[in-house]
């Protein structure tokens, strides 16, 4: 199911703390997860950057906004407790404690005014997205645009050049990159096998590669996968099929049953981005978080 927005987590966080006792982050996580009936897959879904789960990120921002509104406090590291204002908020029994609801608390208004100052102008506007959500959304849009540009460049290559590019990409991913690099060899015309790379550094496992440099409207069908399976049968290796277009549903189902890995144009472009192949780093943003351990040391001294 869809991960709840950060503001949708406000009420279940307060409900988890309504007994007035201190509760850990782990307890909050389990209570909020149970409140929404989230599965293991739901809470494990990562942000586009892959640095944190969507669930934990939004839960973190929910705690932040509740603290800024004065509805919860964190008396000790990793422990949270409801305040009188938090209990009063629950007494109102709101359906959802969104940002409009939180604006009744002066501390929250001060917080959003300070956060939205632009050219000395204050605006009391809070979107439904957390700052991390907005950053990740922009990150996703930039990568989607970059993926389109990459595919456009790839389509300018000849089929032979594309074969070489795929093998070079696999090499940059760690396949066939060991002392005897000759294992990464083009084999065009060898019964439909366009390349061979080795899966491990000792060269025990072969991966047979077939590539199709096709336009987006020319889909790879089941017969193409069947022919490839026939070409590698009995050779003692695994199969990888790469195309600049995409695969039919029948091709995907057949490949899954035959343990053939498929890479379509979109996945190919994303792999190029992930492994810095054919791209360059334009700018680096460092997202920093509070390190409470530093302050705990000062408190103990």
From TrEMBL:
Q: Where is the Restriction system protein Mrr-like N-terminal domain?
A: 6-90
Question: What name does UniProt use for this protein?
Answer: Restriction endonuclease
Taxonomy of origin reads: Bacteria, Bacillati, Bacillota, Clostridia, Eubacteriales
Recorded source organism is Candidatus Gemmiger excrementipullorum
Question: Which positions are tagged coiled coil?
Answer: none
- The Restriction endonuclease type IV Mrr domain extends over 156-272
Q: What is its EC number?
A: 3.1.21.-
Q: Which domain of life is it from?
A: Bacteria
Keywords tagged on the record: Endonuclease, Hydrolase, Nuclease
* GO-annotated molecular function: DNA binding; restriction endodeoxyribonuclease activity
TM helices/strands, residue ranges = none
Any one GO BP annotation for this protein:
DNA restriction-modification system
Output the PANTHER family linked to this UniProt entry: MRR RESTRICTION SYSTEM PROTEIN, TYPE IV METHYL-DIRECTED RESTRICTION ENZYME ECOKMRR
The enzyme class is hydrolase
Pfam family name, one: Mrr_cat
């Amino acid at each position: 199911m869809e991960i709840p927005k950060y503001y949708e987590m406000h009420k279940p966080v307060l409900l988890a703390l309504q007994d007035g006792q201190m509760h850990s982050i782990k307890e909050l996580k389990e209570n909020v997860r149970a409140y929404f009936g989230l599965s293991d897959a739901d809470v494990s879904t990562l942000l586009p950057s892959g640095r944190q789960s969507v669930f934990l990120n939004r839960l973190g921002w929910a705690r932040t906004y509740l603290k800024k509104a004065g509805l919860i406090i964190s008396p000790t590291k990793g422990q949270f407790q409801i305040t009188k204002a938090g209990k009063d908020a629950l007494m109102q029994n709101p359906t959802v404690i969104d940002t409009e609801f939180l604006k009744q608390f002066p501390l929250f208004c001060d917080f959003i005014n300070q956060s939205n100052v632009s050219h000395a102008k204050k605006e009391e506007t809070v979107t439904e997205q957390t700052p991390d959500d907005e950053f990740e959304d922009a990150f996703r849009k930039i990568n989607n645009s970059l993926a389109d540009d990459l595919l456009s460049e790839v389509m300018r290559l000849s089929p032979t050049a594309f074969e070489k590019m795929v093998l070079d990409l696999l090499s940059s991913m760690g396949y066939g990159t060991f002392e005897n690099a000759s294992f990464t060899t083009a084999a065009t015309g060898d019964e439909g096998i366009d390349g061979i790379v080795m899966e491990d550094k000792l060269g025990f496992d072969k991966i047979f590669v077939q590539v199709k440099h096709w336009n987006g409207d020319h889909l790879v069908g089941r017969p193409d996968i069947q022919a490839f399976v026939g070409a590698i049968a009995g050779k003692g290796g695994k199969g990888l099929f790469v195309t600049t277009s995409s695969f039919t549903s029948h091709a995907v189902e057949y490949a899954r049953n035959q343990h053939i890995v498929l890479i379509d144009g979109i996945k190919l472009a994303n792999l190029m981005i992930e492994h810095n192949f054919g791209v360059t780093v334009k700018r680096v943003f460092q997202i920093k978080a509070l390190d409470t351990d530093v302050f705990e040391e000062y408190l103990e001294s």
